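=== RUN LOG ===
request id: a7f3
mode: sequence -> structure
chains: 1
length: 457
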Amino acid sequence: MAVQHSLQVIDGRCDDDGSPPRTGTAWTCAAHIITAVIGSGVLSLAWGVAQLGWVAGPACMLCFALVTYVSAPLLSDCYRCQDAEKGPRNRSYMDAVRFYLGKKQTWACGSLQYLSLYGCSVAYIITTATSIRAILKANCYHAHGHDAPCSFDGSYMLMFGGVQLLLSSIPDFHDMAWLSVLAAVMSFSYAFIGLGLGLSNTISNGVIKGSITGVPMKTPLAKVWRVSQAIGDIAFAYPYSLILLEIQDTLKSPPAENKTMKKASIISILVTTFFYLCCGCFGYAAFGNDAPGNLLTGFGFYEPYWLIDFANACIILHLLGGYQVYSQPIYQFADRYFAERYPGSGFVNDFHTVKVPLLPPYRVNLLRVCFRTAYVASTTAVALFFPYFNEILALLGALNFWPLAIYFPVEMYFIQRKVPRWSTRWLVLQGFSTVCLLVSAFALVGSIQGVISQKLG
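=== RESULT ===
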């Protein structure tokens, strides 16, 4: 068997651990990262720059790009255990935390990770409902004028939840590649439309709007809260640590996966930073202090209305798939947990074949139906109760930025590289982590205040 396995590895028919061979390159890896990172967060960047002003806004985006540039290689070095180039592989973020930091840290990491995934599902419901209303408003304004009383309720969240109930019947990631490809194409489409509209409005205005200090507020404290929310929005748009090791697991070797990943990270950070600066700055230049919270639904743009409709339709299609991308890890965790906890339960483990006319037979598991229905219903209920786009994005960005993008990668890197305590490298990285913690805490407090004030207001 050992001889046969070694021959398979040499032939390239099998990977070094018996799994199918990996074929990813730096360019495919960068494409995965860019596709995952450029999402609904890009739509709030113009608002974020407006709160910070022409100096602090772009500088903040560059700082987060630099932080991502530093933290991503630390995590990529933890892909292989013990030896960064030849050790056993950690196929996921949770696997790496479990190996390097132990079971208690894994529970903490898992709780934050799944809370983040749940929060993103809620944010996607809010965004989709906003985009549906934006299409109806754009048509209403086009037909009756920009001063027409065009208003629509929040029932569209229920419509989105109903569609997600159907899509949640997809068993796992392996069966939803088509949905991910569609979502990726849509995300680039609406992001480019937002960029183009911001640029065209700036040119047609003949002047660059905005100021050095950003949107003025009535009191200094109110300005501090707005700045903290803007930082949270930008933090939401950048890090990709939750998916970094999963993407790295697609890379072929040699060369060593961490070397390829570092190259791909540089490419993706440069592309996304350029794109974010363009979207945020052109949006602010076009609207100044009136920059909308969501660039494509805040109605700075009215015409051409058909292009606004198309962009928002792209957002809706993207988020149909995006919701599933963020929900599937929770679904898979629930499937594994209950199967291990109740191995003899027919409710948990049995599959039933359902035949629908004109469709192939479909296998149904009662646990999946019940759990996924409850999950979609709960996320929809939370979205209905807290329908605040910018504040929710800022809260998610602030909550996850330090622990998932900084703390765990730094602590794992110390163990993987055997960095001595109080050495220069240890002190520098601890200082880096502490600064990021303070920034994350500042953004978190402001984001919570924003959600509360919106609810009370």
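=== NOTES ===
The longest helix spans residues 93-144.
Confidence is low (pLDDT under 50) at residues 1-12.
=== END ===
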